[in-house]
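Q: Start with the shorter request: fold the first protein.
A: Done. Sequence, then structure:
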Amino acid sequence: MSQPYYLKGSPLNVRLNSVIGWLARHGFSLAGTAEMSVRGRKSGQMQRIPVNPHTYEGGQYLVSARGHSQWVRNMRAAGGGELRVGRKVREFTVVELPDTEKLLILRTYLEKWGWEVNQYFQGVTAKSSDEEIIAAAPDHPVFRLTVKK
């Protein structure tokens, strides 16, 4: 059995992510980025990572461009977390979408964020065919967010 797709970040990616997360934590969102906190499934400690929340037809989504990462595994266990930009913190719960419901979310995500994430989609872009995006869907978990009131 093969391992689920996951592309680990280079040392430069890790450093850039820490800067982007720090900026979001201090109120500076780059193109809509936010810092997500999710409880670690093993440590129980809150883990922080910058994310690109994606809005589609009034819903908010988190897409894992790098695949089945640690934050994805933590999110599956925790069922939710927090999004922060400066002092604004939004608690949320999630539902993971089945692959059959990801096509339009992934296409519009790639339209908005492709300049940053195309390298993680193994040749799939916003201009790829429906079949190509559907074939890539299992490698890129997508979560629908429900913000707690």
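Q: Next, the second protein, separately.
A: Sequence, then structure:
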Amino acid sequence: MNKEEALSIVKEHLTEHRYIHTCGVMETAIHLAAKYGADVKKAEVAAIFHDYAKFRDKDEMKEIILSHHLGDDLLDYNAELWHAPVGAYFVEKEVGIEDDEVLEAIRNHTSGKRKMTVLDKVVYLADYIEPNRQFPGVEEVRAMAETSLDEALIASLRNTMTFLMKKNQAIHPDTFRFYNGLIFDRRS
């Protein structure tokens, strides 16, 4: 499937605002993949489909999470996290993409996890820093992304966790594992 076909499939499932975001994530993921040695085509596909399930019905997502054992503990956390594993499921079942690396990058783009691949990291960071995002700290992380993928990820995670803590929201354990793993890797 080429880029235009993929974008036309995903566009049917997104608002105009989210489609513009998706195009920004795609361009950013392509840039980061080329810069840091990830497969550019896989980064493009994962970025295009990363929010495929973003606007699915919450009850439908909950049912998919439970019936397919996508992480029952996920239901204890903000529903904004659900669209990543559910999206990977629907991208495989509805779109027919079976590439495990692409599906894993989609699955991990909200909470992260310990031992992310370069492709996973690229999609996660591209979602955070794409050009249409405007919030405190994003410019700093964009600049860091040009010199160090992991340092940019550490800063993005620090910003995200601080934001969630200020709102008294729970943080998924995988996000802490992702952050701690990057810190531990930096020490070695």
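Q: Describe the second briefly.
A: The two ends are 40 Å apart (CA to CA). The CA atoms of residues 56 and 129 lie 24 Å apart.
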